């Protein structure tokens, strides 16, 4: 009887650990995926790319950073790249306007993650599909709204 209870408890424990572990998995984001730029997304997602293109030259634009750069030191400019460029500070992400021009603006992969594996395979599980406000608040947060006096279009952009 004791052995039976022991195995039942171990089984329940392992099941709970497995369920918890699966809930922590970040589908679509892997260490091996690389950034490809928004133009690569347009082949299958033409409508979304068209919408993105209408908004990408506004506040998300690298042009905003270039305009403000003369008033900022190099570290402050680098801080801007986190929201105004794709993948800055991450492997395969934006490095400079000369080296990685296709990643110079805030593109699809800022929110959806690096797209190389998704594009290569077509598997929707290899990209972050379901976004919520928390994803947007990485850049569109209260401090930035106050400091830059802008009202973010969290639900108005690419989609």
Features:
single chain; 159 residues; mainly alpha; globular; membrane; transmembrane helix; Multihaem_cyt_sf
Question: How is this structure best described in words?
Answer:
With 159 residues, the protein is an all-alpha fold. Helices cover 48% and strands 0% of the residues. The chain contains nine helices and no strands. Helix 4 (62-69) packs antiparallel against helix 5. It is globular. The N and C termini lie far apart (59 Å). Mean pLDDT is 77; it is low at 15-28. Keywords: Membrane, Transmembrane, Transmembrane helix.
Q: Can you count the helices?
A: 9
Give the strand tally.
0
Largest sheet: none
Order of helices and strands: HHHHHHHHH
Task: Give the strand content.
Answer: under 5%
Q: Radius of gyration from the CA trace?
A: 20 Å
Give start-end ranges of low-pLDDT stretches. 15-28
What is the straight-line distance between the termini?
59 Å
Arithmetic mean pLDDT = 77
Shape: globular
Structural class: mainly alpha
